[in-house]
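# nightly structure sweep
# worker-07 picked up a monomer target from the shared queue
# config: single-sequence mode, recycle default, output format = C-alpha cells
# input follows
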Amino acid sequence: MRELVVVGSISLDGVMQAPGTPDEDGSGGFEHGGWLPPFFDDELGAFMGETMGKPFDMVLGRRTYDILAAYWPTAPAESGAEPLNGATKYVASRSAAPDLPWQRSVLLRGDAAEAVAELKRDDGPELQVHGSGNLVRTLWQAGLIDRLRLVIAPIVLGNGKRLFAEDSPAGALRLIDSRTTAKGVTMATYEPAGKVTTGSFAE
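# output follows
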C-alpha cells in the first residue's frame, strides 16, 4: 500500500497559487506570483530536502503538470531537478489524449479518484501531490490523502486559488510535526483525523 502525501505551500489565508515565480500562474488576475522565495532559507531548504530526498512518484493535475514540465526537464542539476525528473508523473487530465512531454509521464485514465486509489494499492514509492489544488480537493473528498506536508508563509494574499474551497468536506487533522524558521515560516505535517468534533465553553 502506497501513501499519498500532499506537498504544498500556502499563505495564512490558504492561498496556494503561484508560490514560485511571478509568471507561474496569473489566472484570475492573481498579481502576487513568486510570494514564497523571499521566505526561503536553509531551514526551509532542509524541510524540502527531507520531503524529496526519498524515492517518490508524483500525482499531478494537468495545469500543475504543464507548469512543472516547462521548467524541470532542462533545469540545471544543482537546482534539484534529478528527483523530479526521475519520478514517474501520473497526470489527471480531462483531455483524452494530452501531450505529456516530460519523461516518465503517465496519463491517469477515467475517474481521477478511482485511478489514484488503484495506484495506492500497488507496490512502489510514496505518491506526492504537488500543487494541483483541484485534484487535492478531489482526493480529500475521496478520503485518499494520508498526510499533508505544508509550508505556511506569514503572508496574507487576499485572493487566489486556495488549498481547500468553501465546499470541501469538513474533517479534522492531527499535527504530527511542526517547525518554524527564523523568517516565520511554519513547516507542518498533518494526518487526517476523522470527523470534526465540537464542544462548548459554556459547559
